[in-house]
Amino acid sequence: MTDVISSSRKTHTLTIAGIVDETPDAKSLIFSVPNEARETFTYLPGQFLTLQIPSERSGSVARCYSLSSSPIVDSNLMVTIKRTAGGYGSNWLCDNAAEGMQLNVLPPSGIFTPGSLDSDFLLIAGGSGITPVISIAKTVLSAGTGNVVLFYANRAAESVIFAREVDELSQRSPGRLSVKHWLESERGVPTSELLATEFAAAGIEREAFICGPGPFKDAAVSALRALGYDKSQIHLEIFNSLSGNPFDTSASLASSDSIPGTTVSAEITIGGDVHNIEWPIDVPLVQHLLNRGIDVPFSCQEGECGTCLATVNRGKARMLTNFVLDDDDITSGSILACQALPDCDDMIRIDFDA
Ligand code: FES
Question: What ipTM was reported for this prediction?
Answer without folding.
Answer: 0.99
